[in-house]
Amino acid sequence: TLALFAGAYSPNPALSFEPLTADRPFAQLAEGLSVSASPASLAADFSVNLRAISREALAGGNSGDAIADAAYAGRPTALTQRSPLFRLSQSGAAPEQLFLSLVAPPGADASLLDAYAWDGATWRFLPSQARAGQRVVVVDDVATLLPLPEPPAPPL
């Protein structure tokens, strides 16, 4: 079973970015993802955009997100997707390390889940640990998690 990530680096002006600051060094989604960093490591301009794309939207082909659709089409067939596909985009200078926490879906045992990241061509296993009903991923090289260019905003 797995949790899925697809990342993007360059900001799309159509997206809303949430700054991570020393006072609030985290961002989260109700669908079960939180991203955090050590307050001391945060640059003043670092912000993230987090999105969750449901399994149903992906399976139905109506996600409205080209990167998510490509990631879903390339998913490992031997594994079962247990969470939404989480999309992370960043703006500004990334910290040296990020922490991703995924809440295990209802009825799932976090110790039996794994996390993977899409690099634009293949899925890559993300080492993680089970902690209190979550999978926690420590990302020491943020560029490897957010390697894809964000599609440009559609014309107005």
Overview of the structural elements:
With 156 residues, this protein is mainly beta. A hairpin with a 4-residue loop joins β8 and β9 (123-126). The chain has 3 helices and 11 strands. It is globular. The strands form 2 sheets. A 6-stranded mixed beta sheet has the order 2-5-6-1-8-9. Strands 3-4-7-11-10 form a 5-stranded antiparallel beta sheet. The N and C termini lie far apart (40 Å).
- Which strand order do you get reading across the main beta sheet? 2-5-6-1-8-9
| Estimated share of beta-strand residues | 35-45%
Kindly name the structural category. Answer: mainly beta
Radius of gyration: 15 Å
Label the overall shape. globular
Calculate the terminal CA-CA distance, rounded to whole Å.
40 Å
Q: Helix share of residues?
A: 10-25%
- SSE pattern, N- to C-terminal: EEEEEHHEEEEEEH
Output the number of helix runs.
3
Give the rounded overall mean pLDDT: 83
Unreliable parts: 147-152
Let me know the number of strands.
Answer: 11
Brief write-up:
With 156 residues, the protein is mostly beta strands.
Protein topology:
Blueprint: E1 2-8, E2 18-19, E3 26-29, E4 33-36, E5 47-53, H1 55-59, H2 66-73, E6 81-91, E7 98-103, E8 114-118, E9 123-126, E10 129-131, E11 134-139, H3 142-145
Parallel strand pairs: 1-6, 1-8
Antiparallel strand pairs: 2-5, 3-4, 4-7, 5-6, 7-11, 8-9, 10-11
